Structures are given as structure tokens and as C-alpha cells.
Amino acid sequence: MGKVAVVTGGSRGLGKAAVLALAKRGVDTIFTYHRNATAAHAVVAQVQALGAKAQALHLDVSKPETLDDFVITLHTALREWNVSTFDFLVNNAGIGSYSTAADTSVELLDTMYAIHLKSVFLLVQKTLDTITDGGRILNVSTGLTRFVGPGHIAYACIKGAIEVYTRYLAQELGPRKITVNVIAPGATATDFNGGAVRDNEVYNKAVSNAVALGRPGQAEEIGDAIACLLADECRWINGERVEVSGGQRL
Length: 250
Fold this sequence. Notes:
8 helices; globular; 7 strands; 7-stranded parallel beta sheet; about 250 residues; single chain; alpha/beta
């Protein structure tokens, strides 16, 4: 049995790209999806075509109270592969938001907190005894914690908290040789935020003009970066924020 990864939000976008990039490296993945079971099963088939294994499990990270039941399901999935632990945890699932400080609602703040911080914190907590010593945890942040994108204040603030959490967790898990890092993608052409970067020609051009390499990122490029950060070659990278933006707003 090779390495096993757990990836949240793996049926689309960056999560899907990460699952496929890991499969190309021989890593089997248990990934979560929220709404689209058909898309999730299609990713499983793509992974199998690459010679690796995958399972898709339902999880709504906006409801952290469901994590206990999810962890039970995760343990069952691992047993189906005759293993009791996994090697990599990628906390990727999330949604975007658009609001200013003046018009951000309590409901939006609560949703951003539940999805991007509380669920991550609790999922790690509830799976610490299932992650192998010497394993990897990779949290997903955003370039918006370094540069300002008007209208993204709630999303960026919560992602900033994940970056602080990452450093603390890296210190706490050091005795187990588990590395903990955070990847911060720049603007990427996916369906995130309604596909704004991918589908809005004006926005796409504005992003391209702000990136040193002259274009937005592609999901596959972020997926490859995630797989690289989980590889043995990156074993000495720990407690770090790694931005993957093509040089956005330098």
C-alpha cells in the first residue's frame, strides 16, 4: 500500500486538480464533495484511469457539527483499503464571498468562519490520531491575505486566521515529525466565485496585467504545487506560507 491522502473539496476546482496530481504520483485519495455526487464519481474514475485509487465521501464543511459522523465514515473507508491511517491531509474545501466591511452580514461571517476555520480546526483535531507520524497537513489560504482585493474582506480575514493556525499547528506537531504548511493561490481560472477569473473577460485581463507571468493560474498548476509540497523532497518545509500566484501584485 502506498501513500493515502485525504482532500476536502476534491470534486471540482483546485481540489480536483490536487487529487489528480496526487494520483499521477501514485497517491490514493479519499476526497470529499458537497453537492455534486456525479462530478465526484467522475473524479474517482479519472483517478482509477491513472492507476491509483479514490473514494468520494459527502461532507458539508459549513456544518462542523457533522464532523464526528464524517470521521466515522472516513475510518470505514480506510478499512476498505486495509489501512488504519493516512499520510496527507489537504484542507481545501471552501467558498468565496463578496462584501465590504460596511455590508458584511453576521450570517456571512458565521458561514466563512464555519467553512474556512472551524471545520478545518475540528477536522484536524478529530483525525490527529489517524494521521501517520511523519505525515503532512496542507491548508489552503489565498493570495488575498497579502494583497487587497476590494470586496473580499470577510474571506481574506478568515483565511488570514488559517495562516496563523498553520504556524501554531506546525509547532505542536513537530515532535511527531508532521509538517504543516499553507498554500496561498493567486487568481486562478476555475469556477470559484462564479467563474469570475475564468469567464469574465474584463476581470481576466485585469488579473493578467497584475501577474508577472501575464495570466491567471490554472487549476492544474495549483494541483501540481500541492502535490509537490506533500512530497518527500519538501520534508524540510514546515510552518510556511507558500504563495502560488505567478507573481501577482509584486
